[in-house]
Amino acid sequence: MTEQVSIVTGASRGIGRSIALELGRDGNCVVVNYVGREEEARATARLIEEQGGRAIVEQGDVSLASDAERLVESALAAFGHLDVVVNNAGITRDTLVLRMKDEDWDAVMNTNLKGAFHLIRAAARPMMKQRSGRIINIASVVAIMGNAGQANYVSAKAGLIGLTKSVAREFASRNITVNAIAPGFIETDMTAGLNAEWTGKMVEQIPLGRPGSPEDVAHAVSFLASPKAAYITGQVLHIDGGMVM
Amino acid sequence: MSDTLSRVKSIIVDRLGVDEAKVVPTATFKDDLGADSLDVVELIMELEDEFDMEISDEDAERIKTVGDVVTYIDAHQ
Ligand SMILES: NC(=O)c1ccc[n+]([C@@H]2O[C@H](COP(=O)([O-])OP(=O)(O)OC[C@H]3O[C@@H](n4cnc5c(N)ncnc54)[C@H](OP(=O)(O)O)[C@@H]3O)[C@@H](O)[C@H]2O)c1
Predict the structure, then answer these.
(1) What is the pLDDT at residue A1?
(2) What is chain A's mean pLDDT, rounded?
(3) Which of A8, A44, A216, A238 could be cross-linked to A212 through a Cys-Cys bond (beta carbons 3.0 to 4.6 Å apart)?
(4) What is the pLDDT of residue A142?
(5) Contacts of A137 (CB under 8 A, 6+ apart)
(6) B 11-70: CB under 8 A from A
(7) Where is the Carrier domain (chain B) (predicted)?
C-alpha cells in the first residue's frame, strides 16, 4: 500500500488519539491536531513515532476557517498530499434547553459542525485534484436517538450526518468517499465527568453490556480509510455495542 | 491571441485535460469541453487565483463559454 497522509482533528486525547495511533500503525503520516493541550498532542505524535510512523503536531481551532486551512496547508507542505481527513474534534456544553445560553449553543455548533465544514472545504481542493480522498466524520448515536440535556450537541451531530451525506454526493464523482461514525458510550475525558448513576443506567442499555473504548472507534476509522472501504460512501456506521439498531 | 486568452487556455487545458485546439472562444465548458459542475467550480477558483480577483456565484453562473471568461476577466481587471 502506498503511504497515506491523514489529518486527525482533536488528536491530543481520547478517541482522536486512538484514531491517530491506529492510522499511524496502518502506515499513514499523521497530522496531529489539538486546540489547547500541546503536551498531550506531542505525546500522541511521540507514540506514533515509537510505532515507526511519521507525525507532525499542529495547533488549530477548527471553528476558525483560517486555522482549518492552515492544517491542510501544513499537511501538504510536510507530506506532499492529503488522503484522509478525520473530523473528530468535539466539545459538549450540556444543559437543558431552558437553561441553555446562546454561547453554549454557538460554541458546540462552531466546533462540532462548522469545524467539520471548514476542514472539508479546505481539503476538497487537493483531494479533487488527486481524484481520491477519504473524509470520516465522528458523529454520535445521540444524533439518531436524541438526548435530554444535549440539544446543542445532538443538533450539531445530526447536522454532521446531513453534511456527510451531502458532501458524499458532491464529491463522489472525484472518488472521494465521505462517511460518518456514530460512537455510543465511549470511555474518554468527555464521559469521565458524567454522573456515575446515570452512566450505570446507560451501560445497562447497551446490548453488548460494556462501554466502548476509543480503540473500538479507531478500528472502524482504520477500515473506512483503507482500500477495503472503497465502495462505501454516505453511510453512518454505529460503533455502540448495539445501542441503536 | 490576447494575453488573457492564452492564460485562460492553459488553465483550461491543464484542468480539463482537453486538446488545446478545442479551447476556442465559442467553446462551451459543459457541452464542448465535457466539464461537469465541479469542474466548472474548480476552474472558476483557479481563475480567481490566477487573475487575483473574485468572481461571484451569480457572475459565474452566466459564464458558459471560453469567450465569456475572457470578456469577464478583461472587464474586471
Ligand atoms: N466519548 C464518547 O462517548 C463519544 C460518543 C460519541 C461521540 N463522541 C465524539 O467523539 C469525538 C472525540 O470525543 P472524545 O470523547 O475523545 O473527546 P475528548 O476526550 O474531550 O477530546 C476532545 C478533543 O477535541 C479537541 N478539540 C476540542 N475543541 C477543538 C477545536 N475547536 N479545534 C480543534 N480541536 C478541538 C481537544 O483538543 P485539546 O486536547 O487541545 O483540548 C481534544 O483533542 C467528539 O467529536 C465527540 O463528540 C464521543
Answers:
(1) 46
(2) 97
(3) A216
(4) 97
(5) A86, A87, A116, A160, A161, A163, A164, A178, A179, A180, A181
(6) 36, 38, 42, 45
(7) 2-77
Question: Considering the domain B2-76, what is its CATH architecture?
Answer: Orthogonal Bundle (1.10)
- Summarised one tens digit per residue, pLDDT across range A156-171 is 999 999 999 999 999 9
User: Nearest to residue A23, comparing CAs of A86, A74, A70, A81?
Assistant: A86
Is residue A2 pLDDT above 90, yes or no?
no
Burial class (CB in 10 A: 0-12, 13-18, 19+), B6: exposed
Does the CB of A69 have a partner CB in chain B at under 8 Å? no
Query: Are A170 and B38 an interchain contact pair (Cβ–Cβ within 8 Å)?
Result: yes
Q: Domain holding A100: CATH number?
A: 3.40.50.720
Name the closest-CA residue to atom 17, ligand 1. Answer: A190
Do B38 and A125 lie within an 8 Å CB cutoff? no
Domain boundaries, chain B: 2-76
Residue of B nearest to A126 (CA): B42
**Percent of chain A scored above 70 by pLDDT?**
99
Distance separating alpha carbons of residues A123 and A115, to the nearest angstrom = 12
Residue A245: inside a domain: no
Segment A180-228, tens digit of pLDDT: 999 999 999 999 988 899 889 989 999 999 999 999 999 999 999 999 9
Between B77 and A66, residue with greater pLDDT? A66
Q: pLDDT tens across A36-53, in order?
A: 999 999 999 999 999 999
A114 is a domain residue:
yes
Q: Which three cell numbers stand for residue A90?
A: 468535539
Domain-embedded: residue A163 = yes
End-to-end CA separation in angstroms for chain A: 34
Domain that includes residue A99, residue range: 5-239
Give residue B74 CA to ligand 1 midpoint distance, Å.
48
